[in-house]
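job 3f2a | input accepted
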Amino acid sequence: MNTQLMNGFNKILINKNLSIIFCLFYMFSFFVSNCYSEDNNYLLTIDKDLISLECKNIKISELIKKLAEKFDYEYKIYPEMENKKISINFSDQPINNAIELIAGNNYVLVFEKNKKFNKHDPIIANQTSNQFSNEFKIKKVYILNKGKDNIIYKKIKTFHDNIFPETDYLKDIVSSKIKDIYNNAQLFEIIPHYDFNEKLKSYVFTYYIGNDSTPSRDNLNEIIQIAYNDKMRSINEFNQYYKEKNYEKAKIAINNSKNYSRLISQEHNFYSVEVGASYEIPPIMAAWNGLPLDISQYPASLNVISNALQGTGFKFDKTYTDGIFSIFFAFKTNQNKVYYVNPKNKTIFTSWKINNSKQNKNKKTKEVKFKWERFLNV
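job 3f2a | predicted structure (378 res):
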């Protein structure tokens, strides 16, 4: 009887001890929110958002990805850093310090305001560890081989500091993308477009993709002018033949006119792309085979303004736009009077009423900025 009581008591004691051990394990698990290990090469623990790490010969990329699971940030690891390994030990570090210890100097952090403080505040780029506070949350982590002349680092910092790329830098990016389509593409001309508030709106990049040597602008203007004259002659012939009900010749004349139009547009020899000139405007506004109106319709527009201003000195000023493919050449006289030519219908006017509905800023700022992020590959 005493033996049975003792056995029963021992069972109760064992169960009680197991319960105590389980409770202690549960409490430890509660305070240590995550614990990762792999092949005994590293131990990563996160306790109240403080990170401790022991690792030997582990890829930086693997650690950054593991931390992202807990701290919910985006990350981009560039190829040159994908397989770089480290061995390091540290304890109780906040996330930004931990990334700095893991990546050394080869990182960029992008911060945003925590929603509980102010969700509308702008992104803070390239914060250093001593500037970090609970008010900020890491939005994105870049791991790259950062250096003074590193174009990727400059691209990231420029974008997140909301600084629009300089023209030369934008040219390099656009040219790289065009050469992915036409490997023989040669930049022919960059043409800025302004809105009627005198704000730079876009750039038109035009590339020569023909097989012959790149023509000069003067030679191209001459080719276009001859083709334009021939086109107008063909249109006159069409009108005459159609009036005479000579439909066979009218058909030939209109086909000739179309061929001259192709010669004016140079769609087989040139490729053009219009790129926004700010983060408020999409990076790719339009792209097409052929010349922009700035070039294909310039000689004819120049003839129109020359005939209208006979005996008056003038020069080309700039190109204005109120939308894609809606452009106007501005010519300024010696007396600083401005004449505008619509290159499509060759009409001339001397003033322009700003249409505010077309001058409004793009309301989808975040969506447009995201398009720029993809375009710049940051």
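job 3f2a | The radius of gyration is 33 Å.
job 3f2a | closed
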